[in-house]
Amino acid sequence: MVKQTQTMTTSEWKIMRVIWTLGEATSRQVIRVMVQKTDWSPSTIKTLITRLQAKGYLTDNGASRDRLYLPTVAEHEAMTATLSRTFHAMCAMCVGQALVDVLATTPLSKHDITQLQDTLQTKYTQAPDRIACDCMPHQQEEIAHHDK
């Protein structure tokens, strides 16, 4: 798998979701799906596919007609990497509450919830009482915006 160094935009994620679902796809197939889901033109969709190739998220079979696009990264891997980058960019002290807020509004299966409970129970035994703010060097935990 190619290691992607650039993040995907929301629009690129939409394209990748179609290709991940199909496993591989021609631009014609992607366009057919995306015109049903969005108001994008075929040229916009082709531009997004080209950008995803340039970023290393897609490769193709090299055919001149009916080129077949294949993902270079698994969907789960891309999702995990994106979430990790996002959480690492946030204040460590605020990530827990952000997770709580997102989980409260995210549809989850019973299986997902059981996995989350198991993971949280395991983490609980070694969790500190409080996570320190890491926004600035040598910052004190008593920062007003974090104590809300």
Automatic annotation (TrEMBL):
Name it. CopY/TcrY family copper transport repressor
UniProt lists the family membership as follows: Belongs to the BlaI transcriptional regulatory family.
Q: Read off the InterPro entries from this record.
A: BlaI_family, Cu_transp_CopY/TcrY, WH-like_DNA-bd_sf, WH_DNA-bd_sf
Its lineage opens with:
Bacteria, Bacillati, Bacillota, Bacilli, Lactobacillales
Keyword tags: DNA-binding, Transcription, Transcription regulation
Coiled-coil features, chain-numbered ranges: none
User: Any keyword Transcription?
Assistant: yes
Answer whether the UniProt record assigns the keyword Transcription to this protein.
yes
Pfam families the UniProt entry points to: Penicillinase_R (PF03965)
